[in-house]
Amino acid sequence: MKVLIYGNGAREHALAWKLSQSKIVDELFLVDPNPLMKPLGKTIHADNFEEIVKEVKTNDISLALIGPEAPLTAGIADILELNGVPTFGPHKAQAWLESSKACAKEFNFRNGIPCARSVTVDNFSDVEKVLLEFEPPYVLKADGLAGGKGVSIVENFANASEEAKSMLEGKFGVSSKRIVIEEFLKGEELSVICLYDGKILLPMDFVRDHKKLRDSDKGPNTGGMGAYSPVMLTEKQRISVSEVLSKISQALKKEEIKYHGVLYIGMMITKEGAKVLEYNVRFGDPETQALMVRLENDFGNVLKATMEERLDGLRLKWGENSNVLVIASKGYPFSPQKGVEISGIKETASLTGVTVFGGAITEKDGRIFSNGGRVLNAVAVGKGAHERTLGFAKHLKFDAKFYRTDIGE
Ligand code: AMP
Ligand code: GLY
User: First-to-last CA distance in the chain?
Assistant: First the structure.
């Protein structure tokens, strides 16, 4: 199989790393890969979908794997499949589960799927009346895609009203022309990343992501500062998660939502049981990095089974625990320092016993520089995984480094 991977962050690096070990994958084609993932395949440069289609045809690609949500929402799977390339990821018509929080909430309400009570608002004159229906802290969500940063949790009424105003006035562009105001849920988060073949929803092992910038889950929300897997749940919690999954599976069937790819369900494990926080129609970042290093199946076979609608016969096998630590550039998530050199990555990784996946970095004359917020992921497996990822972060030569010290402690 010749597989194309679209996306160039640490998630796609981890997917490429795992696929490069597959017995049924002959060659990987990577669209503008980050410098650390580049050696895993043949680089393709493409500025738009048409250029990808051209490359895909020239190189006789048998499967395209799409990492990020934005191209899926923009219809990359539609274009590739129209051109005869089976694509792992939903068509535009199914991507709304992720690209509209308001529509996703309606889907939950229609199908009795447990989630936070919420009201969708598109006019500032309604905001204060709606806020009065909730207790603080107030949860405000941009309806559309916002790179994982569109959720604000605000302690007091006046600030919540102010934040709602700023969102409706375009803080996240068209994505926040409509917002969801919802009940704050207390509990522990859980990422349930499921493979979906249009019939079967097959959960991967549980992962916990930490979205807050600072230790002890303080500070603003980010795209994710680290993750660990597996997550231990009580029997009662496990049953509750299974019940929610089964409701989602029935709802997908009833509403005829079919595609080949991933349905990621972000949950909050509350006292009353598991509740859905959000859906994503792609692999989570950084959760995928924690899962790929634990997955014992041939990942090429896993993708093939999903595409061929054979998930009912697939058993996923998982190795030892894993820990992912995101090394960010200072200033993230608002204005990360770019152009700061990062040196000795390989040496530090082998010294500390971690696998490194690259994120927002660039290469110039053989030197690596930060080029955005989440620049590297350090991933370790087995006993002492937390300490090893932390050891990597401590020893890494990168003047703008910022990371949490409590992920998977
Ligand atoms: P979302 O993109 O909807 O998953 O929200 C991003 C993050 O905001 C989640 O991972 C939670 O940490 C937090 N969050 C979202 N909704 C709620 C809620 N209703 N109650 C508490 N925290 C929430
Ligand atoms: N880790 C959160 C996400 O991928 O959306």
Answer: 39
